[in-house]
């Protein structure tokens, strides 16, 4: 399993953005970054995971992890692909294909090799990013949830729940997770960015409706 936690020093960047589930929509992401006047030399983009599946530009989105201006946490789609292709988990491979992973098998042999190399690199993605902002705020980014009522760096938590859980958002829970100022998640599609307690959900269904949410952190 990948390292669960990773820290980022936000003072190293001029601007920091967090983007919702990209799901293979590379051109759409580039459009949003252009509109935001994102600067590859000074700014940072953090993804809530699910770089791939359902969209048509999956290899381009996977390649984002090689860029110095880009960070990501693991998404459940990314993990399914890794488990199925690299872990020889046939049940997970079937689950991944049913949920949009069939694009991989349509690639040329050359592109399949590139994708496999990128998936090997994706194995190192954290599940939870802790971002220390210049203003002293602590922002946590994970894919689906932080499955504890109190955040603590390196605290043991369920990896499955970090990647898959929808319990809090489905219950419309306004609870505050202690230990950090803001938590940003994707995974569960919402019509518009949703705030519940100190939790923000920003998967606005880009692959289905073209609405990709890009949040600039102050």
From TrEMBL:
Pfam families: Metallophos (PF00149)
UniProt-listed Gene3D superfamilies: 3.60.21.10
Any single GO CC term annotated in Swiss-Prot or TrEMBL for this entry: cytoplasm
Organism of origin: Rodentibacter mrazii
The organism's place on the tree of life at top rank: Bacteria
GO biological process, one term: RNA decapping
Name the record gives this protein: Serine/threonine-protein phosphatase
InterPro entries per record: Ap4A_hydrolase (IPR050126), Calcineurin-like_PHP (IPR004843), Metallo-depent_PP-like (IPR029052)
Molecular-function GO term, any one: bis(5'-nucleosyl)-tetraphosphatase (symmetrical) activity
